[in-house]
Design a protein that fits this description.
Number of strands: 0
Oligomer: single chain
CATH superfamily: AhpD-like
Radius of gyration: 15 Å
Mean pLDDT: 95
CATH class: Mainly Alpha
Helix content: over 70%
Largest sheet: none
Number of helices: 9
Order of helices and strands: HHHHHHHHH
Low-confidence stretches: none
Strand content: under 5%
CATH topology: AhpD-like
Shape: globular
Number of domains: 1
Structural class: mainly alpha
């Protein structure tokens, strides 16, 4: 099964998932931030399709190579802003459910870098990419490898 074929079989579901992503994009949350989060969550979930898809998009929008190269070790890398680190920490906490349940302190730490509405849209973005990862892994989507020039 590939992405286009699955989308044709479940167009309403794919449109609903896409609408969640558009809502996050329209919220004003930085696209560079949400793409970093999507790459990291997809790494945790071992979703080759989503890793490649979001790396391609991240490169296209100009996220620096060192941030993409080091996102798996973001805590030690020293190249991320406080806001990016807070988002990546929240993304990992929500992705690691149920082995790790975020607590009030983690939410409070997130709110030091994000407004409440930004935190809600970030949480929606994290939930959405986790769902896409499960769809792509479950249906065995092949990674979208960029064509060589």
């Amino acid at each position: 099964m590939d992405y286009p074929a699955a989308g044709k079989l479940a167009p309403a579901a794919f449109a609903a998932m896409s609408a969640l992503g558009k809502a996050v994009d329209d919220s004003g949350l930085e696209k560079s931030l949400t793409e970093l989060v999507k790459v990291r969550v997809s790494q945790i979930n071992h979703c080759a399709f989503c890793i490649q898809y979001h790396l391609n998009l991240a490169r296209k929008i100009g996220i620096p190579a060192e941030k993409l190269d080091l996102v798996a070790a973001w805590r030690e890398a020293g190249v991320y802003t406080g806001r990016e680190m807070a988002a990546l920490n929240w993304a990992e906490a929500l992705t690691m459910l149920p082995s790790h349940v975020p607590d009030d302190n983690e939410w409070s730490d997130l709110l030091k870098q994000f407004s409440a509405d930004e935190a809600v849209f970030l949480t929606i973005s994290i939930g959405t990419i986790n769902n896409w990862n499960r769809i792509a892994v479950g249906l065995n989507f092949a990674p979208p490898i960029p064509r060589q020039a």
